[in-house]
Design goal:
The complex is a heterodimer of chains A (about 550) and B (about 220). Chain A is globular, with a radius of gyration of 22 Å. Chain A is mainly β and about 550 residues long. In chain A, strand 21 and strand 22 form a beta hairpin. Chain A has a single domain, classed as Methanol Dehydrogenase, Chain A (8 Propeller). Chain A has two helices and 38 strands. The two termini of chain B are about 15 Å apart. Chain B folds into two domains: about 160 residues, no CATH class; about 50 residues, SH3 type barrels (Roll), CATH 2.30.30. The chains are: A mainly beta (about 550), B alpha+beta (about 220). The interface between A and B is medium-sized, with 15 and 11 residues.
């Protein structure tokens, strides 16, 4: 088939597909089968397996050089723009900071309506960000900076219900996109720098009533409570700030839990501090814990495990296995069995100096002396981590797992005494990093050995790196892969680019003028494929030149 | 004339002098005030007296001046002296024997290859300035790094790095050109780890060094901002 014919076929196919399901309502069946309608993007990570992999293939390694800008949406906000949009049958829904929902024509960027929630309080550590929405039927769901969960009519932008999830006064906040499972909306609370007690809760999608709640820090009498000395569990953190995943066969939902509070001083919280820095697998109907795996027991480095859990089915040592792939902020890449939580593999994907490896149960073996100190201790990866919330991608076609990585970045971790005061920072020290968090492309004077960003492609079977694409500056851009073996990502220095997912070769780039701080996504309207990404305060949408 | 800061502490006289008309005055830390005191005693007290009021008509500690009516005037007087009077020109070493202008600029004088020093007194402490003069390699700030590159046609260029990304590099070279290159057009691109700045340990005597530091401390940017 020549290129023209291929294009024709894909156009016809996708218009057929969209015609058959343009009923408007996004049922949960549609969400579960999201890969069957790749013209749409129905959840934060594309599907509930969170591979951020699209079956669209109109844009290919051969024609990607013809990508050009189709439209830009400039947010009326100067705050970070971290949302991944949803696209449903030609309509795009996204959120500009802090909590303004916008419905746009996905082909032209024209705005249908906006809905503004003005958070009365809320000062998250790292900006009043929002990473996106969830949808079910004709209802959009947004978690807010002041820890509300709001249901919004997708047709007219009117609020349907507004539930207070937690107290903003105590510095609870919601920054991630909710996850819809069946008739429930699931969200968790952030605030790990303020001594919250984190939880994940499910709300009835039609009424906003709480159905179940899972405390990320077990209370008295619950298993795991003994991993917190004294009263430390009351203010122990364990925030949730990235969207989880769902396996419909196991009926389990997976979430990554953030750091224990205070961040850099664990003296007042002796023990492993469950379930901070863990992945938790919960029964989606009841919220009961099925299993957990703790990546960083008794963490004193702020190594949140808030990464998106990527679910994949693959051959593992000769047998098919359902696994979770996980590149952690703590510098290790993990493979876990997602039915049981069994530790299958752990291997550094960047330099790691706080742990030397794992015991047979998968518990990290600590390096003596590598803990924060009054004068500061140098540790790799630094406080920003080997990666963080930036979405990774798994491409089943290449079998590779792609990580937005911070390479060679380290921090001096400084420990200081701290007392809990409601709503105040509760971090217990500070850190000095070779590469700091920064959201606009500041001039870069660093040498490679002082920290750079990369897309690293890892073979999940071995944890070995197959290739890397180096960026002079670090990256807070997520990764999207497509069925034509393209990989899209961007970095802090303000490029959005396409790589060959098999080799890492750069195929196309666009200077977008500010840091890419969102996960790219792709969709199609009337048979034309688009790729969307936020950079700075704008949403950029690219498509092939006609 | 803007309002003068009332400063009763002798120790703060030197800084008071150069801060009197400056918006930065509120931000002086105790250690800066101490630095100021040392500098004042070492360099100014011989004539202005320990309280800053020995020169007739001038009371540095109380912001009483004969000529200066703005912050820039003060810097200018400390830098250039008052011709025909005993007030010396503290910029003498900087502009003369030290040859600092070969690599540095202050306002529109000198070379822009090295870092601009017009507000160095506002962003560095005295001890850091002394160290820069005695051991220029001890600590080179990120934004002062030099790079050396060789183009595909074999031309070598050295300059101060202004920015870089995955694909390109921006610098100012010794001819003060703002240059931008695609890395793909370069044969070599590397950081120059040794500072081109010479040490002044043996080039200047202690008196000259003290004068020079006094001058650098007085450089607080336009209008002292």
């Amino acid at each position: 088939m020549n290129a023209r014919a291929a294009l024709l076929v894909s156009v016809v196919l996708s218009s057929l597909l969209s015609a058959s399901i343009s009923s408007g309502q996004v049922s949960f069946e549609r969400i579960l089968g999201a890969d069957k309608e790749p013209q749409n993007w129905l959840t934060y990570s594309g599907t509930t397996l969170s591979q951020r992999h699209s079956l669209l293939n109109q844009i290919t390694p051969a024609n990607v050089k013809n990508l050009e800008l189709q439209w830009i949406y400039q947010a009326r906000s100067l705050e970070k723009f971290e949302a991944t949009p949803l696209v449903v049958d030609g309509i795009m829904y996204t959120v500009q900071a802090p909590n303004h929902v916008i419905a746009l024509d996905a082909a032209t960027g024209r705005v249908f309506w906006t809905y503004s929630h003005h958070p009365v309080r809320g000062r998250p550590c790292c900006g009043r960000v929002n990473r996106g929405l969830a949808i079910l039927d004709d209802i959009l769901f947004m978690g807010t900076i002041d820890a509300h969960l709001i249901a919004i009519d997708a047709k007219n932008g009117r609020p349907l219900w507004d539930t207070t999830v937690a107290s903003a006064r105590s510095a609870y906040t919601i920054t991630h996109a909710p996850l819809v499972i069946k008739d429930k909306v699931i969200v968790g609370t952030a605030g790990g720098e303020y001594g919250i007690r984190g939880f994940l809760a499910a709300y009835d999608a039609h009424t906003g009533k709480e159905v179940w709640r899972f405390n990320t820090i077990p209370g008295p009498g619950e298993p795991g409570h003994e991993t917190w000395g004294g009263d430390s569990w009351k203010t122990g953190g364990g925030p949730l700030w990235m969207t989880g995943s769902y396996d419909p066969v196991l009926n389990l939902t997976y979430w990554g839990v953030g750091n224990p509070s205070p961040d850099w001083n664990g003296d007042d919280r002796p023990g492993d501090n469950l379930y901070s820095d863990s992945v938790i697998a919960l029964d989606a109907d009841t919220g009961m814990l099925k299993w957990y795996y703790q990546f960083s027991p008794h963490d004193e480095f702020d190594y949140d495990a808030v990464q998106v859990p990527v679910l994949a089915d693959m051959e593992w040592q000769g047998k098919p296995r359902k696994v979770i792939l996980w590149a952690n902020r703590n510098g290790f890449f993990y493979v876990l069995d997602r039915a049981t939580g069994q530790f299958l593999l752990g291997k550094p994907f960047v330099e790691v100096t706080w742990a030397s490896g794992f015991d047979e149960k998968g518990r990290p073996v600590l390096v003596p002396g590598k803990i924060p100190s009054a004068e500061g201790t140098l540790i790799y990866p630094g406080n920003p981590g080997g990666t963080s919330w930036y979405s990774p991608s798994y491409n089943p076609r290449t079998g590779l797992f792609y990580i937005p990585a911070w390479v060679n970045s380290s921090s001096l971790f400084v420990k200081a005494p701290v007392k809990y005061r409601e709503g105040r920072e509760y971090a217990g020290g500070t850190n000095r990093s070779t590469v700091a968090f920064d959201w606009s492309p500041a001039p870069n004077f660093r040498k490679e050995e002082e920290g750079y960003g990369a897309v690293r492609a890892v073979d999940p079977h071995t944890g070995e790196m197959r290739w890397e694409f180096k960026m002079a500056d670090v990256t807070e851009g997520g990764i999207l892969t497509t069925a034509s073996d393209l990989l899209f990502s961007g970095g802090r220095e303000g490029y959005f680019f396409a790589l060959d997912a098999r080799s890492g070769e750069l195929l196309w780039k666009a200077a977008v003028g500010a840091a890419v701080q969102s996960g790219p996504m792709t969709y199609s309207v009337n048979g034309k494929q688009y790729v969307a990404v936020n950079a700075g305060t704008c949403l950029f949408v690219f498509g092939l030149r006609q | 004339m803007r309002a003068f800061k009332l400063c009763t502490s002798v120790f703060a006289v030197f800084l008071a002098t150069i801060n009197t008309l400056s918006a930065k005055q509120q931000t002086d830390t105790p250690s800066e005030v101490n630095d100021g005191r040392q500098l004042f005693i070492a360099n100014c007290a011989v004539c202005h007296g320990p309280d800053g009021d020995s020169v007739p008509g001038v009371d540095l500690g109380h912001g009483k001046f004969k000529r200066a009516s703005s912050y820039d005037d003060l810097v200018e007087i400390i830098s250039a002296g008052v011709p025909g009077t005993a007030m010396p020109a503290f910029s003498k070493v900087f502009e003369g024997k030290g040859e600092c202008l070969n690599c540095h600029s202050v306002k529109n004088k000198g070379s822009r290859l090295g870092p601009d020093l017009a507000e160095i007194g506002a962003v560095r402490r005295m001890i850091e300035l002394e160290r820069s003069l005695l051991e220029p390699n001890a600590e080179i700030l990120l934004q002062n790094r030099m790079v050396r590159l060789v183009t595909r046609d074999g031309i070598t260029i050295t300059g101060r790095l202004l920015n870089q990304d995955t694909f390109s590099v921006q610098l100012i070279d010794s001819k003060e050109r703002l240059l931008s290159f695609q890395k793909s057009s370069l044969k070599e691109y590397a950081f120059v780890d040794k500072s081109p700045m010479p040490t002044y340990r043996d080039k200047l005597n202690p008196g000259e060094l003290a004068d020079l530091v006094s001058y650098l401390v007085s450089l607080k940017g336009i209008g002292g901002q």
